[in-house]
Every structure is written in C-alpha cells, then in structure tokens.
TrEMBL record:
Domain Sphingomyelin synthase-like per the UniProt entry, residue ranges: 172-240
Name of the molecule in the record: (wild Malaysian banana) hypothetical protein
Top-level taxon of origin: Eukaryota
Mode of membrane association: Multi-pass membrane protein
Taxonomic path: Eukaryota, Viridiplantae, Streptophyta, Embryophyta, Tracheophyta
Organism (species): Musa acuminata subsp. malaccensis
Length: 313
C-alpha cells in the first residue's frame, strides 16, 4: 500500500500542477468578470441589510404551506441550514475536481464565470422584488417583540457597509421574495445537471432541492410564495442567460486536451516492448529519436527492431 501511494503521489502532484497552470491562464483572462460577480455578492448582502432597516413586524400572513407543513420550531431551525451547507460545500468541491481527476468536462474558471452570471442575474431581480414590497417576516426573530424585528437607524455609513457580518446576513428580515437559499440551490443543481456525469447524483440533487424547499417553509424562514417564485424565476434566468453566454468547450471528448498525459520512460519502454513481442510495429521515428538521445545511431534502432521482432516470432 505504501509503495502504491509513493508511486502515484508524483503523478497526482504533476496533474494538480498542470491543471493549476492552465486554470491560472484562464483566470488571468477572466478575472475581471469573476471579480465583478464576487463584488455583486457583497452588493446583494448590502441590499438585504438595507431592507432590514425598512422592515416592520406584523401578523404572519396566511400561507398554504404553513397550513400543510408542520412547524419545525425555533430549536430545529438548523435543519434547513445544515442541508443548505451540505449542498453548498459539496457543489464547491465538485467544481474543483478537475484538479485531481483525469476525466473532466469543464474548466473550473469558466464554470464559475457561468455560475456567477446566473447568481448575479437572479439576485438583481431579487433585490428589485423585495424592495418593491416589504412583507412582515415570518421568522421567529422577525416577529413582533423579536429583538431584531426592528433595527434602529444606522449611526454611521460604516455600520451599513459592514452589514454586521455574519449575524446581519443570517438574522435578516424583510428580504423575502424570493428566497436567496433557493437561488443558490437551484443554480447549483441546474449547473450539475448540465455538466455533471453521474445520473444518480443528478436525481439526488433535484430531490435535495425539493427537500430544501419544504424545510425552508417548515422552518418559517420564508413564505411559500418566496420559494415558488424562486423555482420558476431561477430556472428561467438560467435558461436565458445560458443561451447568451458562449458555450464552454467540452473536455470529455478529448478534442481539446488540457492535461497532456506524459508517460514515464519505463512505462513507454514497456509498452513498446510489448508491441514488439506481439508483432506490432513501433513508430520508427520515435525509436530513432530515443536512441539518438542515448548516443546511438538510427541504424542501431533498425537492428534492435529486427532482433526483437525475430525473438517475438
């Protein structure tokens, strides 16, 4: 086992280094777009923090989902967050698998450029929506009497810009239509559905998205309308934005190899020797090149080729 790990470790390290080099080249070309997408994540958080100052608690609205799904309760509110964290981290790890695995379908930099485009378009619509109409928050800390239901006016611009991270993001109120958790979940699921390879995981991803929707409503973090609007809005956004973006090259067909596989000398010699023993021809130019590197003449290559072929017969 130790011998196997010692033999495979250099190959894995070489693969990671080569993939990193290529991804860095792409990153140098696309970094402005990636940075813009990351900056908009902050703008989205800032907008959500701003609408919290406008939030006014009130009676929880009548909701069909609340009538159907039992309330999980404040002490079990972590269940939906735990599932979302699992989906979030699993997807991020999957996007970086080309650095490790030899089989791959996409470039990580180009994939995240696409993901951020989907997120920005969806979040921009979300900001417009929750600033248009502020609903009384159904979450426990947003109800009348809750400590965070009403925020006092900010004392400085710095207080607003810092958005009280991370508490200000986790315990927000007023940014309801539509669910930010469902934006991320659906963008991730739709992306894996297109670029993933495991059919079972695709099915599991959609099941988890449905379970996430139900848990959000059962946890009273959003109204049912927030989740329903997210389902059709995000799907439509991804559909139209995806059509506008240039299609990513498919690496699985081998037409555009990113990581050229370099064989070790011993491995290549064994393959050539195996071909000779089976009576198959070996590229003479390759033999000549290798023999000349070793300080021998091309004619020696012909002699060795004949002798090996005769022994194989």
């Amino acid at each position: 086992m130790t011998l196997y790990i010692g033999r495979e470790a250099p190959k894995l390290w070489r693969k990671i280094c080569m993939e990193t080099y290529v991804e860095l080249q792409l990153f140098m070309e696309k970094w402005k777009l990636l940075l813009a997408g990351l900056i908009f994540q902050y703008i989205h958080g800032l907008a959500a923090r701003g609408v919290h100052y406008l939030h006014r608690p009130g009676p929880t609205l009548q909701d069909a989902g609340y009538m159907i799904l039992p309330e999980l309760g404040k002490e079990r509110g972590y269940v939906s967050e735990s599932l979302f964290t699992f989906i979030f981290l699993s997807f991020i790890l999957w996007t970086f698998h080309p650095f490790v695995y030899h089989s791959k379908r996409f470039y990580t930099v180009l994939l995240w450029r696409r993901i951020l485009s989907f997120l920005v378009a969806s979040q921009a619509l979300r900001i417009i929506t929750f600033y248009s109409t502020q609903l009384p928050g159904p979450n426990y800390h947003c109800r009348e009497g809750g400590e965070l239901a009403r925020l006092p006016p900010p004392e400085s611009v710095t207080e607003v810009l810092l958005i009280n991270f991370p508490q200000g993001v986790i315990y927000g109120c007023g940014d309801l239509i539509f669910s930010s958790h469902m934006i991320f979940t659906l963008v991730f699921v739709l992306t894996y559905h297109k670029y993933g390879t495991k059919r079972f995981i695709k099915l599991l991803a959609w099941v988890l998205a449905i379970v996430q929707s139900l848990l959000i409503v059962a946890s009273r973090k959003h109204y049912t309308v927030d989740v329903v609007v997210a389902w059709y809005t995000v799907n439509l956004v991804v559909f139209f934005v995806d059509k506008k973006l240039p299609e990513m090259p498919d690496r699985s067909n081998g037409s555009q190899p990113l990581l050229p596989y370099v064989k070790d000398k011993d491995e290549k010699s064994r393959e050539d020797h195996h071909k000779l023993l089976n009576g198959n021809s070996v590229d003479t130019a390759d033999w000549r090149q290798r023999l000349q590197v070793n300080g021998k003449h091309g004619e020696d290559g012909n002699h060795i080729h004949s002798e090996s072929a005769a022994n194989g017969a």
